[in-house]
Design brief:
The chain contains five helices and six strands, in the order βααβαβαβαββ. It is globular, with a radius of gyration of 18 Å. It has helices spanning 10-21, 33-43, 63-76, 92-104, 118-130; strands spanning 3-9, 49-58, 79-84, 108-114, 134-139, 153-157. The chain has a six-stranded parallel sheet with strand order 3-2-1-4-5-6, sandwiched between helices. Helix content is 32%, strand content 21%. It has 196 residues and is of the alpha/beta class. The protein starts with a strand and ends in a 39-residue tail after the last strand. It has a single domain, classed as 5'-nuclease (Rossmann fold, 3-Layer(aba) Sandwich), CATH 3.40.50.1010.
């Protein structure tokens, strides 16, 4: 019996989505975490323990609107770690603390980190991999930096998980161009800069 652990960096994924869509993500832009939960279950073997955790930073003005989403996550089987947002506060250290706590439990075999934050996660994940833990990163290759290409870790692009997004994201992914090439359509108009 092995433990599979997902730690999902909700603030980081949301910020990355904002960069991809060039605006504030809405429910239709965000990944369907129920689909992610199903995908995680499919990765496990019979008798394995699965723990899926979503980490959020809660600013006072969004506490009310977030409550419904947190309740929905709990109903889907996710654990939620919520921390008040103060200045530049983040949940990275809390995610890492949870990883180390589960490692100390002795049955951690598979880790899935949903984040594009290479600065926070490359070194700890390399250390976990060196200890024999199967390390997987879920993110967007063009934003994940060295998380997408570090030896000993498997990188899974979020858009490759079928059904996670309702519509394809407007990404400029030059790393995965088809052999015949691909057109990228403009997002602005010629002459816009000079007021024409």
């Amino acid at each position: 019996m092995a433990r599979h652990l997902l730690v999902w960096d909700a603030p980081n994924v949301d910020m990355t989505l904002a960069n991809i869509i060039d605006g504030k993500p809405t429910a239709k832009d965000r990944p369907d975490l129920a689909v992610l939960g199903d995908w995680l279950v499919e990765q496990a073997g019979p008798g394995d323990t699965i723990e899926a955790c979503v980490f959020i930073n809660v600013a006072p003005h969004v506490a009310g609107p977030l409550r419904g989403w947190v309740m929905w996550l709990l109903e889907q089987g996710f654990r939620v770690f919520a921390k008040p947002k103060h200045g530049d506060s983040d949940v990275d250290d809390d995610m890492l603390d949870h990883l180390w706590d589960r490692l100390a439990g002795g049955d951690l075999a598979h880790v899935y980190v949903g984040s594009n934050d290479a600065k926070a996660f490359v070194t700890p994940l390399v250390e976990l991999a060196e200890r024999g833990i199967d390390c997987n990163v879920l993110g967007f290759a063009e934003y994940a930096g060295t998380l997408s290409a570090t030896a000993g870790m498997r990188f899974i692009d979020l858009e490759t998980i079928e059904g996670l997004f309702a519509e394809p994201l407007p990404r400029i992914t030059l790393e995965t161009l088809p052999e015949d090439g691909r057109w990228f359509e403009p997002t602005g108009s010629l002459g816009e800069r000079i007021g024409l």
